[in-house]
Every structure is written in C-alpha cells, then in structure tokens.
C-alpha cells in the first residue's frame, strides 16, 4: 500500500506517531498524480514545490516535538472555484483563465492554519454549472471507476481526485448537489453543510443564496475532521452564522438507537435506477438493525424543486456572472468596435454554452414584466419546499434518500439535452433550496461495479446528527468497501 | 409544445441585457432550448401561491455589521496585476458613448 | 391653459464615515493615485462579499429621522443590474421596494411671500457609489476611457422628494436647507462642487387645473446651487416653448452643460435600462432596532431651524440674519464662535454677512478655510470700538487681513494707520478748518446745525479719515463757542 491511499485521520495519526513523514505522503501523492491524472484529469493546477516545502515544515515541527494542528500534513485538493492567493483560480472557465486572486478564501486560511497542505486546484463544470464536469473549458474529468463515464459534477475533479487517491481529501462546493452527486458517483463521502455554516468569502458565487463549501473525503471521519476545521463564523460573510462549532468527530462516536428516520416516498418514483433502489433498501435494513426507526415520510412539493431551483439559481447567476466583462481581469476579446461590442464579444467568447444558457434563463426570469411570473413565483414555491422539510423534521431526526437516481453515466450521454442533465440533481436540489445539511456516502455498487450513494438529510445545523448516522452506517455496512482500479486504454477515443 | 413562451425577438432582447451575442443558428437553438425549459417550468403554475411569502434567505440572524474602521487597501500593482489593459494606473476601456 | 411647474428632486449625499460602505477602505479618496484605495470587496473581485458598515446605517437613520421619515424596521438591499465600466460588479447594491426611511417631509420658507411649504420626502435609502471614468485629452478624439475604482463603495444616502416644487427657486431653497441639515447632523459635508452632495431633478409641466403629471424630463449633472436653479429654469423654458409650439414632450434624461448653459439629451426612454432588481442574497434583510432609532432621535444635534430660532432669541438679530447665518453649519459655527467673544451681535452679523461673505464668494473660499478667523474678526471690531480705527479704515484693514491672514492690530501697527488720538494734533487740524471756512463757522454760530456736519467732514478729509468723528464734533463745537 502506498501512503496516498491513507485517509486523512490515519495519516495525521501516523505522522504524530512518527511512523511516516508528511514528506513521504506528499511524494506518494504526487507519484499517483503523475501516474493517473493524465487519465483522470482531475487537476487544473498542481502546487508541487510549495506542497513539498510545506510538508517538510510539518516534519520539522514533528521532529521538534511541537504540538501539531488537526490537519498536519494532510493533502487537500481545492475545487477551482475557491480563491487561492497567488494561484490561478479559473472556475473552469476561459473567461477567468490566468486570473490570480490577491486574496485567499476564508476556508483556505482555515485549512492552512490547521496544517493542511493545498496540493492543487481541481477541475469542475464551468462556474459550477453542470452535473458531469463536462462543462469545463479545460476538458472533462473522467470517473476513476470507469473512464468512459463522468465523475458527476460540478465538483467532479475533487471527487475523482479523492477516489483515485490523488489526494487525501478535497473541498467542493454545492449549489444544487455539486458535492453530493459527484461524491456518490465516485464512491466517496461528501457533505453539503447548512447554509451559513461555512464562510463563503472567496467562494466565487454561482447562486449566492444556495452555494456552500464542503468536504469530499474517503470516509465519514475525514469529513468530520475537515468540517471541524472549516466551519464557523466569519466577519467577512454577512450570511455566515455565529454558532459554536461542535466536535463533529466526537459526535460520530455515539450510536443511533431510536433515531427517527423518514424516507420520503416522492424520491422513489420516476426515473430511479432499480439497482440504486435496491442498494438503498439494503442500506435501510442496516439502519434498522442499528436501532433506527424507519418510516415513510412525505415531501409533497418535491416535484417542483427543479424548476424552482433553476429559476432562482440562474437569476442569481445572471447577476453574479455579470462582472466578467473584460474590464478588470480575465479574458477580453481581441477585437471589438466599441464598449458594447467589447462586452458582448468578451462574454460570448469567454463563457461556455451551458453558462450562457443559464445567464439567458436567469436574465429573462428577472427582466421587466417577467419577474413576478418566474423569479417571485419560484421564491414562493421555495417557501413551500422549505415548509415541507420543516414539517417532516418535526417528526423525524433525519431523512434518507438516494443521492442520485442513477450511478455514473457515460460522457456525452446527456450533454445535448440540458433538461435530462438537470434531472440528475432531483434528489439533491431541494436540500439547497431549504438551506439544510446533507451528506452522501457510498452504500454499495452496481453490477457493473459503479458506486451507489445514499443521502442523509438533517435539519438546520444538525451536521452532528447526519455525521453520526453516516458514521454508524459506514462502520456497519455489509458491502465491502472497494477502491477503483484505474484502467487506462479503455477510454481512448471517447475524448471529444 | 406548440405555443412559444419566449420568441426569438425576446431572446435577442435578453441577450442584449446580458451582453451576449449569438449568431442566427445559436439564436434558434437557444430559443428552442429555453422554450422547452420554460415549458417544463410552467409546472409551477399548478401551485396557488397567492398567500405564500417568498423566501429570499434561508437563515435568519442578527445583522453582521462592520466597525467603521479603515484598514489598508490593496497596493496598486496587485489591483492592476490581472489586466493587460492598463495605463498610468488606470484600467483602459473603449471610450464610453 | 396655465402651466404649472412640477419638480421633484433626487439627492445623493456622501455619508462621512471613515471606511467605505461594505469594506474597510478609506472614504478619503479624492486626490489619491488611481486604484490605490480599493480592495477585493469594493473591486467586486470574484468571491468577495459585502458587510455593511455600522456607521453608515447610523448616519442614514439620523438623516431619515431628521427628515421626519418613518424608519422601516426591516428594509432590504437589492441589486440594480447594468453594465458600465465604473461599476465593477455590473450591479449596484441599492435599496428598492423596502427603503430604510419613507414618508417624511421638510419645511421650507419662501422669502417672497413669507409662506411655509411642506415638501414631502418619498424615501431615504442607502446605496454604494461607483468608480470614476477619466478621459485623456479631447473626449471626442480619444478612443478610450480610463477607469479609477477609488470611489467605488463610498456610502451614499439617496433622498427622493415628491414632485412638490413649483419653481426652480423653491428647489434651490430646499437644497440649501437640506445641505445645512446634513451638515448639522454631521453626516455629510454638503460639498456640491466636489460631488459629496449631488442632485438630479425631474421636471414637468401640467395644466394647473389638472392633477395628472405631465411627461417629465430627468436632469442630471448640476454641480452647484446656482447650476440647479439655472438648469431647472432652462428646462422649464424649454418645455414651455415646446408646448407653445404644440410639440409633445418626450420622457428623456438630459444633461446640464454648465459651460453652454443648456440641457442636452443623454438618452430617451426607449433606451432606458431594465435594471432587473432582485434581493441582494449576500446581505440579509436589514433589521433596525426601534430602540436604536429612538436613541438616535433623542441624540439628534440641533438642526438649522432650531438654531435659527436660538440665534434670534439669544443674539437679538433679525430673522433674515439668522436664516442666512444658519444656512450652513460652518457659517453658524463661525458666528457663534465670534459671538462668544464679542457682544455686539448685530454688528458681527453685519460684518459676516457683508464683508466676509463678499470676500469669500469673490475668492471662492469656503468659510472653513477663511483666512479671517472669528477671533481675528472680533479683534478688528474691538479696534473700532476702542477708537483706534474708524469703521471706514476697518474696511481697508479687513481687506488686508483677508489677503494676508494677519491680525488687525498687526496690520495697524505695520502701516501706522491708527486713528489720531493725540488731541493737540487734532486741535491743530480743527483750527485750520475753522480758519479756512469762516462762512460755515458763522452759519453754525447762527444756529445752522448742518454747517457743523460740513466742518466735521472737512476735518475727516484732512486727516484721511483717521479722526474720530464724535470727538471732532464736540471739539469743533467748543472751539467755535470760544471764538
């Protein structure tokens, strides 16, 4: 076994015990990246020298007997939508190619203080708009479990990097499922925290009222470990909530006897893959065995989530992405006649088609005469969706659902039909609309050896509860945990 | 879908607002795609939301306010670093109007 | 049809906080090197987020309360979306359907008929300022504009009035008073030339018998009180002329060109923006604690109106004087400082409203920068009272004081232009005058008082005004009696 295959908590313990060095882990990480990333294409940028330097510094601390921070020597890959001072931050877009922010996102500062080492920036759907990482201006990322398939998205690079052992953990962002769906499709653990739990400062906005940063990890413990570090109030983000950060690791240790679990019936109807359904039913039995009480629940407005989400998200996006105009940073068209044509050419050449489609949709939804019919209507339905959750959570502690209706699909399968692509997020989107937390973790594999994820949803700020439920399941899952065997050659010719 | 929800002319208007430009083929494609998306979104009209308050924020808490304190600004070279179109410390753009 | 003028104003005031509205950059941007007063937040860099400055909120509430507005306990920020190079996020954070303050009013007094008018304030809301565009050389021939973001994110309060003004002069009077109020509140310096107070106006005409408004034109770029009056008068005349010619007025935005004294078309309604306002997701609804509003209301400083009444009562000066002296905070402060050092308060107001304001205006100097301080002015007035200089001489001394900033006593010492206090010297002059004007002496002896005045004048003439008229008067009488 090579050290890049460790989990973060295993690595930290071994470093503390002086059994291995941070430098050795880092070497194995970069060896793996060198070996497989030409197939996976999870990374857009790699911080090799800086990372090795920082690993040496950690080792020096160990040698000097200094107290080690909680993520000492842990390699972290960062989704390229999170600002990193001095390192290119492109959001997977041509329009931000070459943009080097003069500031760090708050989560980057927190990770660095905790001793984590940022090894690179990961690929993603342009501005987090997509569910397959095919919408990256820099080419797609491939699923380590099957290189002909997508890793999910938009945090596909982060999920694939963790799955392929190219990093110990990664950060993703989740606006409508962008952490949970790729975590599910890559067999990893991904957590979308409560809106306001983690500072959004430095997270390049897609849809500000829905976006949250969260971890993608190899197991629940790593997820809890990273959550503890990156959570908390930030006086640079007016929407970050001033609540104490619990010890998520500790809360995992408790059992789930008598935990009241609701299973929303609306999540099991149209379009669900039978293998996904079967895996979930098997998982529910384990929860039952662990003492949880499982009941059917109802979220009656589920079917309205998708249009609600796309109206709100695209409206906010149309405004958030207006700043990419070629004036101050990023791409500017080479040729233009006047100011207006500079704007139009820059934006038309700089954005990919899905981004343009969403900007158009959002601009339309906000434009004079349509606001009430579309945007306001969507905000009202958002209230109904939120109230659905308020109601079920008065009865249940958590909800369990599939994360994605299907396992990983093939590249190009859904690209030409935006609506079908949108449907792959139907189980994750309502959670963002309600602003509540949810975790996705692996519960089994399909016959063709593709990971299947389950989603555990909690009420506002109940990350402790969903982590505890996830941890108990993970420890008792009867399906043996697998690692992908990355087989090259196969996907040649699939590339566009 | 028979009836068009958004016409090509509206697509052109929205594109102008969003500062995007499309060729004829793209306009047709966008019009058709946006129509099928909006047609699906009509689903929301099934719901009576007359008396429902809109949700713009999912959290509620006391306002976070800054103290009125001056902290250092960014140095000029860092501000201008990401642009090729700079003159005498300013960003250069095509003439307005 | 009798046309009635209908004017509404939109005034932006720059709030005098230390830091910008949503970040910690300084508000002191004027004269700085371009793009040196910015940070990721006010530059709108990707991932940056706004956090409202506490003082901005306090100042805006203070303004709204002073304008008798109701304070919305929950107001909201909206994004106003449009593309322009001075707007780095391509949206302005502003307030839309729930402003901080609404439904207020302000009273103005119209001097010609002593009438008081209540001008309704529609709303007071907060918004951020944009950057500045600069043109090198000739705007027509240059192919590019230059962008400086130093001003981005400067806090502004926008004050919108109902269309309650019936003449450009009313609008001007309102603005002068509003400026004085915000100065007294300590929320804005009210400098129109530097742009810390900016005014746009909506102008229309309507049939006096009708209550429906005519089509309005929006006038922008008026950079002084005078410009406001001139621009509005120009616009009223333009619209009257069009109506007289039977031409329909179209809704448009017009720009006041100060150098040519005309308004010119900027854009018509067809080109008007579709701003796509929606709630700013990065800022939670602004909750205002009623206790805070009451606290602010209680601790409001003295406003110009109350100050004017106090001036009338305490200093026994006419209403007209008090009105002018409280028309700006600094002027009122100047007067009060001087009045604390000098008891002849009417003499003081005469000098300030006369000589001092004339020199300040002629030299385009603000009262804050006056080379003659209240102490120096009082010093000069005391020289008059002590008989060291005459009132006439004082005017010359005042001019020198204004030019050099020196004390009156120093100028007097240096130039030797004191009053003649040596009686023998004066008697010598008086004797000469008596000798040279036997007719007048005779007339006076026969009871013609007027003749004595002529003789006093002659003495003043000989002494170049350096004699004290009262003394000369008495001395002449005695001398002539003795003859």
TrEMBL record, chain A:
Keyword field: ATP-binding, Ligase, Nucleotide-binding, Protein biosynthesis, Transferase
Molecular function GO terms recorded: ATP binding; glutaminyl-tRNA synthase (glutamine-hydrolyzing) activity; transferase activity
Keyword Ligase: yes
Protein name: Glutamyl-tRNA(Gln) amidotransferase subunit A
Quaternary structure and partners: Heterotrimer of A, B and C subunits.
PROSITE patterns: AMIDASES
Record carries keyword ATP-binding: yes
Database matches in SUPFAM superfamilies: Amidase signature (AS) enzymes (SSF75304)
Alphabetized NCBIfam families for the sequence: gatA
Function: Allows the formation of correctly charged Gln-tRNA(Gln) through the transamidation of misacylated Glu-tRNA(Gln) in organisms which lack glutaminyl-tRNA synthetase. The reaction takes place in the presence of glutamine and ATP through an activated gamma-phospho-Glu-tRNA(Gln).
Cellular component GO terms held in the UniProt record: glutamyl-tRNA(Gln) amidotransferase complex
UniProtKB/TrEMBL annotation, chain B:
InterPro entries linked to this entry: Asp/Glu-ADT_sf_sub_c, GatC
SUPFAM superfamilies from the UniProt entry: Glu-tRNAGln amidotransferase C subunit
GO MF annotations in UniProt: asparaginyl-tRNA synthase (glutamine-hydrolyzing) activity; ATP binding; glutaminyl-tRNA synthase (glutamine-hydrolyzing) activity; transferase activity
Any one GO BP annotation for this protein: glutaminyl-tRNAGln biosynthesis via transamidation
Enzyme Commission (EC) number: 6.3.5.-
This protein's UniProt keywords: ATP-binding, Ligase, Nucleotide-binding, Protein biosynthesis, Transferase
Pfam assignment, any one: GatC
Quaternary structure (record): Heterotrimer of A, B and C subunits.
Function: Allows the formation of correctly charged Asn-tRNA(Asn) or Gln-tRNA(Gln) through the transamidation of misacylated Asp-tRNA(Asn) or Glu-tRNA(Gln) in organisms which lack either or both of asparaginyl-tRNA or glutaminyl-tRNA synthetases. The reaction takes place in the presence of glutamine and ATP through an activated phospho-Asp-tRNA(Asn) or phospho-Glu-tRNA(Gln).
Entries under PANTHER family matching the protein: GLUTAMYL-TRNA(GLN) AMIDOTRANSFERASE SUBUNIT C, MITOCHONDRIAL
Protein name: Aspartyl/glutamyl-tRNA(Asn/Gln) amidotransferase subunit C
Organism name: Candidatus Sediminicultor quintus
Gene label: gatC
Automatic annotation (TrEMBL), chain C:
The keyword Protein biosynthesis belongs to this UniProt entry's keyword annotation: yes
Top-level class of the enzyme under EC nomenclature: ligase
Catalytic activity: L-aspartyl-tRNA(Asn) + L-glutamine + ATP + H2O = L-asparaginyl-tRNA(Asn) + L-glutamate + ADP + phosphate + 2 H(+); L-glutamyl-tRNA(Gln) + L-glutamine + ATP + H2O = L-glutaminyl-tRNA(Gln) + L-glutamate + ADP + phosphate + H(+)
Record domain Asn/Gln amidotransferase: where: 333-480
Assembly: Heterotrimer of A, B and C subunits.
Function: Allows the formation of correctly charged Asn-tRNA(Asn) or Gln-tRNA(Gln) through the transamidation of misacylated Asp-tRNA(Asn) or Glu-tRNA(Gln) in organisms which lack either or both of asparaginyl-tRNA or glutaminyl-tRNA synthetases. The reaction takes place in the presence of glutamine and ATP through an activated phospho-Asp-tRNA(Asn) or phospho-Glu-tRNA(Gln).
Protein name: Aspartyl/glutamyl-tRNA(Asn/Gln) amidotransferase subunit B
UniProt source species: Candidatus Sediminicultor quintus
Underlying gene: gatB
């Amino acid at each position: 076994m090579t050290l890049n295959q460790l989990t973060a908590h295993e690595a930290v313990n071994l470093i503390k015990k002086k059994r291995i060095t941070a430098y050795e882990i880092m070497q194995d990480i970069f060896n793996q990246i060198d070996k497989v990333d030409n197939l996976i294409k999870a990374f857009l940028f790699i911080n090799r020298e800086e990372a090795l330097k920082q690993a040496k510094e950690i080792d020096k601390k160990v040698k000097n007997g200094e107290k080690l921070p909680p993520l000492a020597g842990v390699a972290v890959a960062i989704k390229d939508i999170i600002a990193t001072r001095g390192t290119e931050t492109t959001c997977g877009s041509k329009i931000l190619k070459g943009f080097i922010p003069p500031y760090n996102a708050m989560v980057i500062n927190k990770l660095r203080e905790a001793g984590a080492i940022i090894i690179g920036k990961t690929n993603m759907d342009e501005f987090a708009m997509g569910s397959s990482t095919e919408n990256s201006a820099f080419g797609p990322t491939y699923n380590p479990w099957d290189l002909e398939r997508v890793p999910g998205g938009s945090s596909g690079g982060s999920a694939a990097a963790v799955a392929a052992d190219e990093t110990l953990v990664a950060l993703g962002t989740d606006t409508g499922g962008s952490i949970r769906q790729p975590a599910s499709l890559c067999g990893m653990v991904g957590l979308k925290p409560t809106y306001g739990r983690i500072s959004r400062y430095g997270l390049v906005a897609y849809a500000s009222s829905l976006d949250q940063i969260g971890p993608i990890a190899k197991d629940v413990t790593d997820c809890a470990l990273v959550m503890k570090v990156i959570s908390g109030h930030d006086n640079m983000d007016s929407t970050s909530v001033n609540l104490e950060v619990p010890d998520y690791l500790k809360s995992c240790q408790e059992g789930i006897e008598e935990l009241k679990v609701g299973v929303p019936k609306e999540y099991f109807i149209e379009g669900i893959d039978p293998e996904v359904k079967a895996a979930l039913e098997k998982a529910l039995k384990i929860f039952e065995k662990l003492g949880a009480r499982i009941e059917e629940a109802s979220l009656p407005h589920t079917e309205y989530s998708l249009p609600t989400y796309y109206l709100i998200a695209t409206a906010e996006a149309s405004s958030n992405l207006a700043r990419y105009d070629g004036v101050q940073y990023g791409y500017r068209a080479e040729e233009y006649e006047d100011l207006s044509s500079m704007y139009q050419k820059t934006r038309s050449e700089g954005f990919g088609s899905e981004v343009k489609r969403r900007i158009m949709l959002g601009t339309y939804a906000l434009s004079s005469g349509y606001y009430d019919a579309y945007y306001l209507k969507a905000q009202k339905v958002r209230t109904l969706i939120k109230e659905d959750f308020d109601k079920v959570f008065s009865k249940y502690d958590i909800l369990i659902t599939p994360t994605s209706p299907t396992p990983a699909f093939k590249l190009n399968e859904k690209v030409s039909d935006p609506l079908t692509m949108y449907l792959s997020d139907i189980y994750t989107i309502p959670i963002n609309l309600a602003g509540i937390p949810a975790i996705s973790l692996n519960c089994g594999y399909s016959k063709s050896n593709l990971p299947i994820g389950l989603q555990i949803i909690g009420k506002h700020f109940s990350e402790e509860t969903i982590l505890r439920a996830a941890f108990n399941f993970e420890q008792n899952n009867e399906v043996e945990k697998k690692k992908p065997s990355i087989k090259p050659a196969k996907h040649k010719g699939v590339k566009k | 879908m028979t009836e068009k929800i958004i016409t090509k002319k509206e697509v052109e208007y929205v594109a102008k607002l969003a500062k995007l430009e499309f060729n004829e083929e793209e306009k047709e494609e966008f019009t058709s795609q946006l129509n099928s998306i909006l047609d699906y979104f009509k689903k929301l009209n099934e719901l009576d939301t007359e008396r429902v308050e809109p949700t713009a924020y999912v959290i509620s808490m006391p306002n976070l306010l800054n103290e009125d304190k001056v902290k250092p600004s960014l140095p000029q070279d860092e501000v201008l670093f990401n642009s090729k179109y700079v003159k005498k410390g300013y960003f250069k753009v095509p003439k307005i109007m | 049809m009798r046309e009635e003028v209908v004017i509404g104003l939109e005034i932006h005031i720059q709030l005098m906080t230390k830091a910008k509205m949503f970040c910690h950059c300084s508000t002191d941007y004027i004269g700085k090197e371009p793009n040196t007063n910015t940070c990721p937040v006010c530059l709108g860099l990707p991932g940056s987020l706004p956090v409202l400055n506490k003082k901005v909120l306090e100042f805006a509430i203070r303004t709204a309360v002073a304008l008798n507005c109701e304070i919305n306990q929950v107001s909201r920020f909206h994004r106003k979306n449009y593309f322009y190079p001075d707007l780095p996020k391509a949206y302005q954070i502003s307030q839309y359907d729930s402003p901080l303050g609404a439904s207020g009013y302000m009273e103005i007094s119209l001097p010609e008929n002593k009438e008081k008018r209540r001008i309704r304030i529609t709303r007071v809301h907060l918004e951020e300022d944009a950057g500045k565009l600069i043109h090198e050389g000739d705007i027509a021939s240059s192919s590019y504009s230059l962008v400086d973001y130093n001003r981005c994110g400067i806090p502004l309060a926008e004050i919108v009035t109902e269309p309650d003004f019936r003449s450009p002069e009313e609008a001007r009077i309102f603005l002068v008073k509003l400026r004085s109020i915000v100065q007294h509140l300590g929320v804005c310096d009210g400098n129109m030339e530097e742009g810390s107070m900016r005014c746009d106006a909506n102008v229309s005409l309507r049939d006096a018998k009708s209550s429906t408004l005519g089509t309005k034109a929006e006038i922008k770029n008026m950079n002084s009180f005078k410009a406001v009056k001139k621009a509005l008068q120009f616009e009223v005349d333009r619209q009257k002329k069009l109506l007289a010619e039977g031409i329909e007025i179209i809704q448009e935005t017009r720009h006041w060109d100060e150098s040519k004294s005309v308004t010119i078309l900027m854009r018509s309604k067809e080109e008007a923006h579709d701003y796509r306002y929606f709630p700013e997701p990065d800022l939670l609804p602004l909750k205002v604690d009623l206790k805070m509003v009451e606290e602010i209301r209680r601790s409001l400083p003295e406003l110009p109106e109350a100050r004017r009444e106090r001036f009338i009562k305490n200093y026994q000066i006419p209403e007209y004087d008090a009105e002018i002296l409280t028309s700006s905070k600094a002027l009122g402060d100047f007067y009060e400082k001087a009045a604390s050092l000098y008891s002849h308060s009417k003499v003081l107001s005469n000098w300030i409203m006369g000589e001092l304001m004339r020199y300040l205006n002629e030299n385009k100097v603000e009262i804050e920068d006056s080379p003659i301080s209240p102490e120096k002015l009082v010093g000069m007035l005391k020289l008059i009272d002590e008989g060291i200089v005459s009132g006439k001489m004082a005017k010359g001394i005042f001019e020198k004081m204004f030019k050099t900033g020196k004390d009156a006593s120093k100028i007097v010492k240096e130039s030797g232009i004191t009053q003649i206090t040596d009686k023998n010297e004066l008697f010598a002059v008086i004797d000469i005058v008596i000798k040279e004007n036997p007719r007048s002496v005779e007339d006076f002896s026969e009871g013609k008082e007027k003749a004595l005045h002529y003789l006093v004048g002659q003495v003043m003439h000989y002494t170049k005004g350096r004699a004290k008229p009262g003394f000369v008067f008495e001395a002449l009488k005695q001398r002539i009696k003795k003859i």
